[in-house]
Amino acid sequence: GQNIDQPTEMTATEGAIVQINCTYQTSGFNGLFWYQQHAGEAPTFLSYNVLDGLEEKGRFSSFLSRSKGYSYLLLKELQMKDSASYLCAVPSGGYQKVTFGTGTKLQVIP
Amino acid sequence: NAGVTQTPKFRVLKTGQSMTLLCAQDMNHEYMYWYRQDPGMGLRLIHYSVGEGTTAKGEVPDGYNVSRLKKQNFLLGLESAAPSQTSVYFCATKEGTGKNNEQFFGPGTRLTVL
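^ Those are the sequences you sent over. The predicted structure of the assembly is below.
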């Protein structure tokens, strides 16, 4: 089965950089997703990593280490609108399903 | 394109009542999912479908039934609602089995069972 662990809450300052960590245990690795979810809204896709290393997409980057079962989401130049929950997720059931972590609630303060 | 829509957006039920939540998509995606989201629990998969006419159980299927008679619609039924089913329900779709295919979520249905 899948087991995903993320910090529950984080606080960071506008303009700063924040790193949100995710550790996972899976019976077979098929990549890792990050989703963003603003309060009261639906999750939206941010990134997918299947190979080790850092993938950059504008202010957001996602890192993966398969040997360590570890990923992080890096948010640069934080803006108030980045206040949201960030969900780490791993595919399961031969890509048919996805198991989500409980999410990290990020609060950006002025 | 509407994407993924859910009906209704809000609903209050009394214990024992039944209801059906409708998810509709216009993206021609094969896979559809129903999740519930509760504080501190994250998104948990209730049922899913890998194509028209198919359904499968997820992590928390008890108390729910589903049907996928048409490719574009995925219905979630509660036959006898219980207070433990108070939650936010999200529908999601995925194009296929491509490993990097992300899920697209509907806006959610907020259900309260009294």
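The mean pLDDT of chain A is 94. The longest strand of chain A covers residues 84-92.

Shout if you want it in another format.
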